[in-house]
């Protein structure tokens, strides 16, 4: 009798589940069946390339699809050979918060004519981003991802500022902010698929875009076609633990850069040895903590100076640009009148003033995807533990963010465990998504293959760093669906 009762209960639950699935499909029917009206993008580069743009309406909250809606902007570059067209390929260049409308043009440059001929390339500004309906927390500074300082005074200042950033978002956006998450963006992708009349989606994602792609394969495995994930995030560590792993990786990259710079002391005058160059950088941060460094019209303190280094260490080809940047900072710290280079000027403005709507959605997604510790002392202790081994980046990698003061996520973190085929590309010295993260995603997606670009410091490969081995693997997979027979190791050209 117990077995019969258990069976009946299981059947009742199953029936309820099926009924709920059918009801959900019915609720989304008006979104799946909407007409997509393509028009000029109103951008010279996109229009000249033949790209067309449109807006798709999606539920703000998929748990209440009959409620409020929001809009998502998309772009399309049609397959070059309609007779051979096999479907659509969406792309996401990273972030979260990055615009993807232009991804069609960017990644197309690394694709073979065969791939370009057979796919409609679809760009997307994820919900909250760019031409999609935006969120804007009205922040007085740029993004929330900066160093929490070098001492207790700086840390306490960071705590107050991050709490204020979270409060501003809550005050301005209210409960709407809770629905700008990766899971909902993945659901938006499926609405786009249906509205375009497609059965499945092929996809190229870079950096954060790999997490979005992995979540999509978990939520919609039967809608996933050929998936490429470049510079991958371990979904079990997203996002706070991913940032934590960036500390050691960037300290190692800084050592590599310091050795390169020391060999060019006559040009940059930052030190004759790796140790001297690194010491110069650390002194600059300590000085900025006491008295912010004035460079051009900006004051640079210990919270943001490490981030100016961090942004350049992603690519070894930027070593010279980073050395020139540090030379400018050193001159400014010595009281010299320094006119920042156009590149440095743009980055200072972007980081310290920023685009509030872009940084707002980045915070909303990161904080809304996964909960983090709420006690500031947890971060303070982690920073102190990291100080000896991570003197430059420990305050960033272990620092507090607005997520510690954010409302609790409305859904749990997505657990990715599936057998959807995918191609994962990872460099061994990636400073943003460590090599171990790519290997972890390879394990989580059991039918995937990992392409390792060995002994290269680079974040993002396809379309950014020419490499014949990687490009062949990616283009072969997109062209005919063939994954490498086993994990593959590539070398720098």
Automatic annotation (TrEMBL):
Signal peptide interval: 1-24
Residue ranges of domain AB hydrolase-1 in the record: 89-277
One MF annotation (Gene Ontology) recorded for this entry: hydrolase activity
Pfam family, one: Abhydrolase_1
Parts of the chain that traverse the membrane: none
The keyword NADP is annotated on this UniProt entry: no
Entries under PANTHER family matching the protein: 2-SUCCINYL-6-HYDROXY-2,4-CYCLOHEXADIENE-1-CARBOXYLATE SYNTHASE (PTHR43248), TRIPEPTIDYL AMINOPEPTIDASE (PTHR43248:SF29)
Name of the protein this chain belongs to: Alpha/beta hydrolase
